[in-house]
Design goal:
Number of helices: 9
Structural class: alpha/beta
Order of helices and strands: HEEEHEHEHEEEHEEEHEEEHEHEH
Largest sheet: 6 strands, parallel
Strand content: 25-35%
Number of strands: 16
Distance between the termini: 32 Å
Shape: elongated
Strand order of the largest sheet: 13-12-11-14-15-16
Number of domains: 2
Radius of gyration: 23 Å
Helix content: 25-40%
Oligomer: single chain
């Protein structure tokens, strides 16, 4: 299996190597299914895969179908109905249906290269773009897959047969991939976000374990400390490193946006108060601080008395940090923290969807025919 931190980067790289491959995507689901709409797996001609759409019998069948796609070079959509036997294979509680699109991507496809280049550029700039995928029928009766990319300014890359104004109806407030039927067309809308950024203040034992887990959970990790011997590529090979002269002015070196998750774990808690005072002024998604209840109380009281903070300013701080699993070792503590980060990230995305505006479309329904 090929190493990957983000599937979009791998897809982009593959379109520039001349290698043909198949992308399997969940393209609509009803009831319980192993993964959500937009979940992807890359399949190669040699039978290997990268990513997952749920494992078990679903992936086993998709791998068989991929062989057909490689042979015909024609994409297909297959509907899976999960009955009692399939449920036991996938650990689902109740049955459901899902459609999987197996999209053949030839080794040379300028349009796809342009689309996936646009996605990677947006990810690098920490911007959001929306990928539209349409399933239609060609003159020969075979499935045709069209894609286009829409950025926040309504600029379209690729072709879907729709006007920008029509596509914009489906991107406002859309926080997760959804299948829509509109104007007799069926398409998948996928918002593509940059990776959430995890800033770890302190490069000690917990930070080292946390950085490993964060990479596995698809966080872009930045480790910040004032010690070269601790904040190093040798200790944190998959993280960006920032070595400060002092924690007193860290925001001049570190830019924190709404996609920032912050974990405060400075050595001996010496600089926790200093860091907390500054990061509370940022729009970060999460602030967590490793501290005992006594230490936390002293920090809060000091910041209120000396820096003008109010009690309500600390409501957003997760301290004690992490989910309560009676963690003791650095490894266990890191697991509890990353579990809480995943939970907060998922809640934010669902909240964004629930508060979003999504007129005109209707979700995929079982009776929709392909």
């Amino acid at each position: 299996m090929r190493r990957i931190n983000n599937l979009w980067y791998l897809i982009y790289d593959l379109t520039n190597t001349g290698e043909s491959f198949v992308i399997a995507t969940i393209f609509g689901k009803v009831g319980s299914a192993p993964r959500e709409n937009g979940a992807k797996m890359i399949l190669y001609a040699d039978g290997s895969v990268t990513g997952t759409i749920g494992g078990g019998i679903l992936e086993a069948e998709v791998r068989k179908l991929a062989g057909q796609v490689f042979e015909t070079k024609i994409p297909l959509v297959h509907r899976f109905n999960f009955g009692a036997a399939e449920i036991s294979e996938t650990n689902m509680i109740c049955g459901g249906k899902c459609d999987v699109l197996l999209d053949y991507v030839p080794g040379s496809n300028p349009t796809r290269q342009e689309i996936y280049s646009g996605i990677v550029n947006a990810l690098n700039k920490r911007e959001v773009v929306w990928l539209f995928t349409n399933i239609g029928l060609g003159n020969t009766g075979h499935i045709i897959v069209n894609k286009c990319l829409v950025n926040a300014n309504g600029i379209i890359t690729g072709h879907l047969g729709c006007e920008s104004a029509d596509l914009n109806k489906f991107i406002s407030g859309t926080a997760k991939a959804e299948v829509h039927i509109w104007d007799n067309q069926r398409f998948l809308v996928e918002p593509v976000y940059g990776r959430d950024w995890l800033y770890i203040f302190g490069a000690g034992h917990i930070a080292k374990q946390l950085a490993i887990l964060a990479a596995m959970a698809d966080f872009k990790t930045v480790v910040i400390d004032d010690r070269f011997e601790y904040a190093s590529k040798e200790r944190f090979p998959d993280s960006d490193i920032v070595v400060l002269n002092s924690f007193e002015d860290l925001l001049s070196r570190v830019q924190i946006n709404q996609d920032g998750y912050l974990v405060i774990a400075t050595r001996g808690h010496m600089y926790d108060k200093t860091v907390l005072e500054q990061v509370l002024k940022t729009p970060s998604a999460y602030v967590g601080m490793i501290a005992s209840q006594r230490k936390r109380r002293l920090i809060y009281e000091t910041l209120q008395a000396e820096k003008g903070f109010e009690a309500r300013d600390f409501i957003r701080v997760h301290s004690p940090i992490g989910l309560e699993i009676r963690a003791e070792t650095p490894e266990e503590i890191a697991i509890s923290i990353i579990a809480e980060l995943i939970k907060v990230r998922a809640e934010r995305k669902h909240a964004a969807k629930d508060c979003g505006f999504n007129p005109g479309g209707r979700l995929f329904e079982p009776h929709v025919r392909i």
